[in-house]
Amino acid sequence: PSFSNPSARLVGKSALVTGATSGIGRAIADRLLAEGCTVYGVGRNEEGAPSHDHFHLLKLDLTDTAAIERAVKPIASSISLLVNAAGVAYYGPHETISPQAIAEMTSVNVAAPMSLAAMLLPHLRECAGTILNVSSVTARSNSNTHGCAYGATKAALTNFSESLFEEVRKHGVRVITIHPDLTDTALYRNADFTPQDDPQYRLTAEEVADCAVSALSSRDGMVVTDITVRPQRNGIHRRK
């Protein structure tokens, strides 16, 4: 598709970006700031936060629903773009994944995006805003061995995104879902593998952010609802 000038679409907008202090969320926040957006970025601490006059850090634990509501309510009426980029993953045989890890993945990967969408939708309908959810290529797979709980949370996020678009498209609200494959971020800190160093085998967070901004920049009346981005080759590096 032919995309319009991103600045024409994004300049002057206010965005709420979760996971804005690392990985894909940080890369998207940087791109939005460069395109002239004001960004309210959610992170657990200041480490990794962009240094920019139009960046405002919201220190939040996304497993705390009450804290999310307290922080977002005062700015909800100004937000026209919600980016749910925060994610957490635990890998291994399912019997090795603790109930606490399962609860954390469910809260961060599913409940927080749903809750934020519900809080912001009244204003997003008024301004014909956008929700962009960062899911995972695992959401499209019928088999996620050693990551079945994580894959299930991302499948839930994708299903939610697709259903929500059908619900709100008549109000002019766009819902975009990105499904990245192996990306060179800290998501794999709780895994016994990492993406290979060769760029043929892994994406960068900046490349995923480029896809996000391209989709966000499409003209009124056209929505890129589903993006899957993958490295050319498939392979991982096992930790010893």
Fold and architecture overview:
The protein has about 240 residues and is α/β, with parallel strands linked by helices. Helix content is about 35%, strand content about 20%. It contains 6 helices and 9 strands, in the order αβαββαβαβαββαββ. A 7-stranded parallel β-sheet has the order 3-2-1-4-5-6-8, sandwiched between helices. Strands 7-9 form a two-stranded antiparallel ribbon. The protein is globular, with a radius of gyration of 17 Å. The termini are far apart.
Helix fraction, binned, reads: 25-40%
Please count the helical segments: 6
Distance between the termini: 44 Å
Biggest sheet strand order reads 3-2-1-4-5-6-8
Task: Identify low-pLDDT runs.
Answer: none
Radius of gyration: 17 Å
The ordered string of helix (H) and strand (E) elements is: HEHEEHEHEHEEHEE
Could you tell me the number of beta strands?
9
Sheet with the most strands, sense and barrel status: 7 strands, parallel
Structural class, by secondary structure, is alpha/beta
Give the CA-based shape: globular
Question: Which features does this protein show?
Answer:
alpha/beta; 240 residues; 36% helix; two-stranded antiparallel sheet; 7-stranded parallel sheet; 9 strands
List the helices and strands and how they pair.
Elements: H1 6-10, E1 14-18, H2 23-34, E2 38-43, E3 55-59, H3 65-72, E4 81-84, H4 99-127, E5 130-134, H5 148-168, E6 174-180, E7 193-195, H6 205-216, E8 226-229, E9 236-238
Parallel strand pairs: 1-2, 1-4, 2-3, 4-5, 5-6, 6-8
Antiparallel strand pairs: 7-9
Helix pairs in contact: 2-6, 3-4, 4-5
